[in-house]
Each structure stands twice: as C-alpha cells, then as structure tokens.
C-alpha cells in the first residue's frame, strides 16, 4: 500500500491557501498521510513530507541525491556561497574548515561573552518600562555573534545592522515563496531596499576583515581568525569574498534565529505560569548555591547546572522552530522506503507541523518543558529536529542552545516579562525563520530570589 496520498483540494486552492497561511496549510496537511502529493505538474511534482522516517531518508540516507534548490538560490543573493547555500563537495570542504569554531572548549569561551552581553542588557532595563522584545533580542544576539565569531564590537552600529538584517530576511522570505522570482538586478522597491541592506552589512564585514588582516594575532581564537588561516586544497589562502560569505552566513543564520526563539520563549513563559515558576526556582537555587560556595560559577558551569532552563528552550524550539520549513529538490529519480519519486521532485518538510503530532508528543499544542526531562527518548529520530539533520544539520546547534539558555537564564533571574496590554495573542510570521508578527512589546518587572528551601539549596 502506497504511503503517498493526494491532497484532496485543487492545485489552485492549495496555492492560494499556502500563500495566505503557509503554517496552517502545513499543519492541516500533516494528518493526511506520511507523504502528501500536492498534485502539481508531473514535470515538477511537489510533496509534503510528514513522517519522521521519510524525513530521515531525505536529510540523511539520500542527501547526496538532493539539493537545496530554489531556497539556496534566493539566499545566495545575500550570503553568497557560504555554508548554508553551498552544495555537496563545496559544502563538505567548508564544513571541515568551519567545524573547529564550534569545538567544546571554544563554546565554553563564548559562554562568557554571552553572559557579559546579556548582563549589559539587564543593566539597561528599567523596571516597568516597556521594551520591543524582538528588537532587544535581535540587537543582543547580533552583538554576541559579532564578538564571538568576529571579535568585533558593534555598540555604535547595532541598531542599523539589525535593521539591515531585518530587511534582508523579509525580502528573502517573500522571494522564496513567490510564484515568480524577478532578477535581483531589477530596480523594484524590494530589490533596491535589499541591496542597500547588503551594502550596510558588507561595510561591517569587510571592515572587520581588513582590521583582522592588519593584526591577525588578535583574532586567532575567532571564526574570522580561523578563516584567515585557512588554506584551500592548493595551499592558497581564502579570498576575501569567501571569508565574507561565511561571515554573512553566520551573521544572518547565527543570530536572527536565536533572537526569534527567545521572543517566543518569553511569550510562552508568560502564558505558562507553572513553567515560569519552575524556571525561576531553578535559577534562584543556582544563585544560592553560588553564594554558599563564595564565588560565581563560570557561564559554562551555569549552563550545565540549569537543566530546566534548557528544557524551556527545547520546548520553545518544538512549538516554534526557527527553521519552520526545509526544502529539497531531487536531480534524479529516487526510491524512498519503497516509494518511487521522479526526477525534479520537490519536497517540503515542516518541523513546525511535524512537531505538532499529538500521537508522538501528546497534547502537542501545550507548552510543557517537562516533556524534555529525559531528552528525546522514546520519540522517533526525526519527530523532533529543530536544527535539521544529516550533514546539512546546523553546525552551530550546540552554540545556539548554550546561547539561548544562558540569555534566558540570565535575564529571567532578574526579571519577569509581561506583554503590554492590547496586543492579543501572538501570531507566527513564517519568514526565513519563524517570528512573532509585528514583534512583541513587553514590560520587564524586577524580581527577587525566592527559594522554598534555602538550606537544601545550600547543601546541594
């Protein structure tokens, strides 16, 4: 019996429904079957993949027969031929020389920078004075990525750079899912704004490269220093254009996704008081243990000692995965789990929809960090995959988890956040990554530590 089912609605209604509400369309398609054919043209058939075993086939077992296709072509306009857009041999080579940036000892060093930058934001917040949470998280993670990856301070230009990132993200998203992709050289308002934004980002990136070339020893333990030291297969140094592409990739993929996830985390905690109480209890107990020990733990040590904080991030990534859709295209015919797919087939995988499977998670729409108490034990391998999978899985996933959990813990230790009244429920906006539509105005409320059993915390 075939595991491929045809979607019951017409091709035209599918198109308009997806354009209007892609997330709703994908969630509604998930229960229809393991693989749902959208009944597009036989020349370029399109399938929605809902089953974890088919996801594993595409992302792991058959990845060499697939390419990113349309999405990579659009992303190239901004990030060039970096790790996110490179295919096959180029991707493997780039991943080899970038992997050391995310070694464990380096991530521990980055943790201190994350803590420093987050404490700086804490110090700037005023009790009861609303903030634009999306802007705050974007500027925070932008500053962190600049310091950890490029050893560059952005305090003066942070707002302008964050705005440039926002413009590129919005225009890229609208282009990827547009039925017609206009040439980037055409002087449309969107293309013009996108090119101006790229010039703003390029000025920072090429400026950092030039500074690092003048004093390479100062950048030895950063991504930028690693790129300056890297040699290609012929022993030649990487050209500035390739270094630029990798920096742009990290800049866009490495901070906007984390910022969006954090906004969703604050929103979810506000709406889940029980989870917020558990989070604050853990943070207060960690602080009391540090006081009893007479010295603060390292940032990496704090991350290790806050399992529930990590669970909050994991649950946020389940309900609101930044990479809400993954696209693949087959250059040749392939067989997956006994089902044939013709050449030029397109596949759409939605972690957002797959993560909402009640059969796997039970009450999947509820925000319950406790479900990660035992990790992902008992779930199919690709029932939960916020960082993708296979060789194209996110190279910085461990860094991203550490960064998000430390930011959440550092801020939540000192503040709770409530939404400014009148905004209503948050609406997901599926751009290149998943954000809250219109952002979220939130009010910081300063808090004091409250521990049910301080003596027990001191003995722990």
Automatic annotation (TrEMBL):
Source domain of life: Bacteria
Q: Name one Pfam family in it.
A: p450
Taking the record's annotation, the residue ranges forming a coiled coil are none
Cofactor(s) required for function per UniProt = heme
Asked if the Swiss-Prot or TrEMBL record annotates the protein with the keyword Repeat, the reply is: no
Q: Name one GO molecular function term.
A: monooxygenase activity
Keyword Metal-binding part of the UniProt annotation: yes
Q: Where does heme bind?
A: 394
Alphabetical keyword list: Heme, Iron, Metal-binding, Monooxygenase, Oxidoreductase
Entry similarity comment = Belongs to the cytochrome P450 family.
Q: Give the protein's recorded name.
A: Cytochrome P450
In which organism is this protein found?
Paenibacillus sacheonensis
